[in-house]
Amino acid sequence: MAERADMVFLADESWSVGESNFQQVKDFIYNVIRTFENVMFGKTGLRVSVVLYGDKPRISIDLTDYITIEEVLVAVRDLSFQGGNARTGHALSFLVDTLITAGALRGDAAKVVILITEGKSSNSVEELAALLKDAGVTVFTVGIKNADRNELRKIASDPVEEHVLYAEDFQQLGSLSRKLSRRLCITASEPPQPVKQRENVEKITKPRDLTVSEQNYNSLRLTWTPANGKVTGYQVLFDSLSAPGQDVPMDQRQIVLDASESTVFVTDLKPNTKYFFTVLAVYADVLGEPATVKGKTTSIPPVTNFRVIEEGLSSLKVAWTPPLGKLEGYKIYIPKSKKTGGTSEKILGSGFSSHLLENLQEDKDYTISIYAVYPEGPSQPVSTMGRTLKLLPVKHIWLQNETTNTIQARWTQVRGASGYRLTWVSSEGSVQNVNLGETYSYYMIQGLQPGAEYTVTVNPIFGATEGPIIMAKATTLSSSAVQILKATDITTNSALVFWNSVPGAAGYRVTWGPTPEFFGRDRPRQLALNGSTTAFHLQNLAHDTEYVISLYVLFGAVEGPGITITARTSPLGYVSDFKVASYTSASISLSWSSVPGATKYKITWKPDDKEEGK
């Protein structure tokens, strides 16, 4: 790829994209940029900008904001969504004003714009896209889902088949990143596109725009605009500077380059040191005028994100993010006890990113330091603090949901515990226990005797060490069944059932349905009731039907034995003692005995001459 290129991503953030899909747009931009990880970034190499647009375009990442790919990638991850309408034409006009008219793009750099959109622009685009292309900008278009393919072709550079990409949905967008990256590499490696009606370039008599970039602890890059004339080569001279800024005697070095070179990567420098650089054009029989610049190497990079990731009774595990560069290894220091004094040192190879510090004191604060060791020497230390765990007991234990043969034990977990030992002892002295893993916080103790008192203890386990115990007592139920279940107040469509209360019951489950000989008259039903209920009114029953009614006792998630009875609803009644009480020439008074459960009566009559009436 060319040493100099300006790349601008113009990304649609309209409401039609949406915030969730916008994340996939960010991932797409991130993956495309990441393919240039081996390319020089900054003023003398590849510069990247991201412009987002909805109703109004906005520069989220400017061409001059960052000089390393790592900084650019972090900035892409931090892009935020605002929404709006997709005004692509307005966004293209914004690029013309900010990039072309304002001269933000470098004249000797390849210039590329990548448009990413999901829909059709709400304003004109063709003329504005032509202005970009006339200014020497190569335009790629990436359409997604509802994007107007005809509009994409009008915006893109020729040949459009190589500059238009399309994805059916946002999930397929990622599959285009490699294809686009390859085409960008080709475009950026070619000479800049010609600019229509471009003014004459100003004559240059010496190297200019000498800049320092890619500063590291032992290297940096120099880049310049070539000198005019018949240049046969370049000389690069550099000296380290003393504290007041003066040259250090006998420290000058020289690099000779071909005339085709306009950048050099200077290596074998000292960390955290200022240098004075001079670049001269070499002609057939003379040296040209010098271009000079000062630059400084960075300090040796330390590890980052140094932290304690795991605490134990006598150990601390630390982890870190390795720095870039050629490492020899690491040195970890931790203070010894006050009695012995001094520090303990551990040397690790360059392949490590974590380490377990052992044989520490319980319940003690430690300050741990780490140095990254390079051939040039150690980095500055990075420190973190950690505290070993204290041998603590379980804070609380609860015994609940007792039945005739089970008790449920619950307890609070202890930080750092590798497991728990649960023990239960009957009043007769029978002892049983179970070892449980670190994730346990409850256990159902089974196989107990009815009506017996049990002492339950739990203690945390730390590897081979047992923590203090905590104790609680509970008594199993003598009986877990309902002794009395009766049905009363039976009518044609209802019945009242009641039963005796069971101590310790969390609730009851009542079921009812017709006996086999009455199947088809009604369906089976059931209902859960709370532990304070001892009666329930069954309603909407079928008349003259025998029902099986069962009741079960609930102890938490455990169901005790049930008890069952049968009851039969009353048949429908009939009218008796029906008679004429009195009559006149136009009316008749009737009387009859009432029928229990009846809600209405139906009366029919007719005259003797067979004419019907009501």
Automatic annotation (TrEMBL):
Keywords per UniProt: Extracellular matrix, Secreted
Localization per Swiss-Prot or TrEMBL: Secreted, Extracellular space, Extracellular matrix
Cited PANTHER family: COLLAGEN ALPHA (PTHR24020), COLLAGEN ALPHA-1(VII) CHAIN (PTHR24020:SF88)
Domain VWFA: from-to ranges: 6-180
Domain Fibronectin type-III, chain residue ranges per copy: 206-303, 304-394, 481-573
Stated name of the protein: Uncharacterized protein
Keyword Secreted in annotation: yes
Principal location class: secreted
Keyword Secreted part of the UniProt annotation: yes
